[in-house]
């Protein structure tokens, strides 16, 4: 079986969709699926193309046994709505050229398009029709919902046209998969037939990210003592997270000298956060760069409290990928999400898996943080770890996915 992945993001990006795409492609390749990846050069979350790549050139390479075609795109240093649209559009054009060129020489059984970006959907559907190829749209983020839900674009006539177009495109795919049941329900509300839906969650390498990992050496390296309480946010530092609330919390409890707030990551919003922390003269806030994957278990083990922060309206459009590894590490997490969302439902079904508070509510956030800090965080969260072992193990998830895609190729998906 041959599967081509079409996505903006891919390895060696260390966080988010790129990390999952790279892991998926490599695992599928090892399981006997012939995988090709048509992707952008690595740029996320720094919004800067890595030095060994060029944003304006195509590049073919082999990454851990997977054939990868890098397609040029515009990467803005300062992200605005217009620049983001241009960013997505340029990749849609360049990747369409690469896709057609490769299809003329060879064709896969399945094209696996990851949203974002929806901009690639028209070419994917057109070429799949011409060449007789099955299609899967995998939704990591509902980019249209995120755009309107976060207020990046105002609702109105244009919004209605965009939403209708999104629905029409999604319904044309043979299968629509996503990472949570709430997101699948959203796809169904957008008109996708229930028989086409596939649950394909993000995962954790539960044998690598474990509660047994010792984080004391990293804690010492970063200048923290064993008595310090580390409140960690790790991952993309962007607008959709609403991380100003963490700065407010740091202000509120700065008299508690043992509590240290650590941001590990990069993104379009990191300079703004640094300015906010400096303006408040906060000495309990620290910024560290993204860590290589081999350091992640120690980093997670080092933390007493893990933060999963999002704005209102984002939790069912964007399910934070960082949570899988936090759970696998047995971490104690504070999560901002509304009760009816997927994150809210997981917390209701698994009491104490994490502490949930309403998003964009500073008072509740600080109260929730104090609640988690009051726990014995030296011991791992057994409920979180057991949930990860049962639901998030990478080997089980990839095995199920291969079986589902094999049924699609053989025309037996809905049997």
Helix percentage: 40-55%
Task: Give the total of domains.
Answer: 2
| Topology as a string of helices (H) and strands (E) | EHEEEHEHEHHEHEHEHEHEHEHEHEHHH
CATH topology of the largest domain: Rossmann fold
- Quickly give the structural class: alpha/beta
Describe this structure in words.
Helix 6 links the parallel strand 7 and strand 8. The strands form two sheets. The protein has an eight-stranded mixed sheet with strand order 3-4-2-1-5-6-7-8, with helices on both faces. The chain has a six-stranded parallel sheet with strand order 11-10-9-12-13-14, with helices on both faces. It has 15 helices and 14 strands. The longest helix has 25 residues. The protein has 415 residues and is an alpha/beta fold. The chain folds into two domains: 219 residues, 3-Layer(aba) Sandwich (Rossmann fold); 176 residues, Rossmann fold (3-Layer(aba) Sandwich). Helix 8 crosses helix 13.
């Amino acid at each position: 079986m041959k599967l081509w992945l079409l996505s903006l993001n891919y390895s060696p990006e260390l966080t988010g969709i790129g990390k999952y795409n790279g892991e998926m492609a490599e695992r599928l390749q090892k399981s006997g699926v012939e995988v090709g990846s048509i992707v952008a050069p690595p740029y996320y979350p720094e919004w800067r193309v890595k030095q060994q790549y060029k944003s304006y050139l195509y590049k073919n390479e082999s990454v851990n046994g997977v054939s990868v075609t890098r397609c040029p795109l515009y990467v803005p240093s300062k992200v605005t709505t217009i620049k983001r649209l241009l960013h997505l559009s340029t990749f849609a054009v360049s990747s369409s050229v690469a896709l057609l060129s490769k299809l003329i020489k060879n064709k896969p059984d399945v094209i696996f398009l990851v949203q974002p970006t929806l901009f690639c959907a028209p070419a994917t559907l057109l070429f799949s029709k011409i060449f007789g190829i099955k299609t899967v749209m995998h939704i990591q983020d509902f980019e249209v919902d995120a755009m309107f839900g976060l207020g990046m674009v105002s609702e109105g006539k244009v919004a209605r046209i965009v939403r209708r177009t999104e629905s029409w495109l999604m319904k044309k795919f043979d299968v629509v998969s996503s990472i949570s049941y709430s997101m699948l329900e959203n796809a169904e509300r957008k008109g996708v037939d229930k028989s086409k839906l596939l649950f394909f969650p993000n995962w954790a390498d539960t044998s690598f990210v474990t509660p047994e990992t010792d984080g004391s050496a990293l804690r010492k390296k970063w200048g923290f003592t064993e008595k310090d309480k580390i409140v960690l946010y790790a991952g993309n530092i962007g607008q959709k997270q609403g991380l100003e609330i963490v700065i407010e919390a740091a202000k509120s409890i700065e008299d508690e000298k043992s509590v240290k707030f650590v941001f590990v990551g990069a993104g379009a919003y990191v300079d703004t956060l640094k300015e906010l922390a400096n303006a408040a003269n906060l000495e309990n806030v620290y910024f560290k760069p993204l860590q290589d994957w081999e350091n992640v278990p120690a980093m997670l083990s080092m933390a007493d409290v893990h933060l999963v922060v999002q704005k209102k309206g984002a939790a069912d459009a964007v399910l934070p990928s960082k949570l899988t590894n936090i759970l696998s590490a047995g971490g104690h997490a504070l999560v901002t999400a509304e009760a009816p969302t997927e994150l809210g439902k997981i917390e209701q079904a698994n009491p104490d898996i994490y502490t949930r508070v309403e998003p964009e509510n500073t008072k509740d956030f600080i109260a929730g943080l104090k609640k988690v800090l009051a726990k014995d965080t030296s011991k791992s969260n057994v409920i979180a770890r057991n949930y990860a072992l049962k639901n998030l193990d990478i080997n089980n998830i990839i095995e199920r996915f291969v079986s589902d895609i094999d049924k699609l190729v053989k025309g037996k998906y809905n049997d």
